Amino acid sequence: MTDIKAMIAEEKNKLSSIRQSLHKIPEPGFKEIKTSEFIAAELEAIPELDVTTGIAQTGIIALLKTGRPGKTLLIRADMDALPIAEETGLAFASTHDHMMHACGHDGNMAMALIAARILTRLKDRFSGNIKFMFQPAEEGPGGAKPMIEAGILESPHVDYSIACHLWPGLPVGTLGLKSGVFMAATAIFEIEITGKGGHGAMPHLCVDALDTAGQVVNALQRVVSRKLNPLIPSLITIGSFHSGAAHNAIPEKAVLTGTTRTYDKKIWEAYPAIMEPIIKGVCDSMGASYQFKYTHGYPPLENDPGMVDIMKKSMLRVVPQERIMEPESTMGGEDMAYVFEKSKGCYFFLGSGFDGCAPLHNSKFDFDESLLLTGAETFVRFALDLLG
Ligand SMILES: [Zn+2]
Ligand SMILES: [Zn+2]
User: Fold this and answer.
1) Which of 142, 219, 254, 294: CA 20 to 30 A from 339?
2) Is 15 helix (H, G, I), strand (E, B) or coil?
3) Helix (H/G/I), strand (E/B), else coil: 172
4) Would residue 50 show up in a list of annotated catalytic residues for this protein?
5) Domain architecture of the chain: domains with CATH
6) What is the pTM (predicted TM-score) of this model?
């Protein structure tokens, strides 16, 4: 019997070199050119893999066939970075101006690549197929949906899917997962309010767009507290408010932007129809007009209970029971949700939190690379438990 822990441990230097190489070349969504080339070269070096590049611009699928009939598991990693100037001081820090792997996608990719290397060597120990998915633009506008539209979930049909994300909210080396909704459905909106500008000392001759927008900000907070079921986590955040230029002028325009989140797909769909009458009511009462643009983001990400049960058993082969946690769900979003809508999915966290560590999307975000061995081993164990 091959010792999987030993195989994983032997990959330590390779894993570190992959992660550091990717960390140096962070790229924005759908522009992961060098990243995609690097990953493709790593995958193409494994002759058993059937590699397709350029899916939804920079996405990649590597197919591992065992030649024996069975189900197909998809293992996914996200490839994009963020427009943040890195301040970690690391020797392998970003070489791209104002771009950084501040969400740990360099680590997510490294784990999936190591899993691809090891599962290829273990392919006599399971049936069916594994697809390794490297997707662009997780941070937005989302690469999973266009990759699905390009057909990645067929030929062969994907039955199951898994993904892992580094998570500083959990202690170092722990694994976190839970059944049911794990991440929220997302959307963004913009409200442009138009009034009538004029002298700050003559409000009776004006329609104050800034004051109207202020009332809209407050009124929209009634959506969650008064219009939605309090048992379902939901929120509205107004993230920007732009209006006015002079201390003594009443502004004609005000622009608000924000995001909505919810665990419920029906609320996700209904949000704009609930918000608009409130915006209209406030604007009508003040004599202002408005334009409301609402764009749906990702649906809720839901873990399949059966997959979670198998994953918990697989995790026990990787770490002791006390290092498997059930984290709080998050109001963050994930476009892996689209893949989970079409296959049985399980998303889990790899805890990377230590005292004083920086959060995700922070210019000082970093993690202990040896943790990635735990994530890669979890992918391998789960694939063997599911398809073995
Ligand atoms: Zn992120
Ligand atoms: Zn991320």
Assistant:
1) 294
2) helix
3) coil
4) no
5) 4-183+300-387 (3.40.630.10), 185-296 (3.30.70.360)
6) 0.92
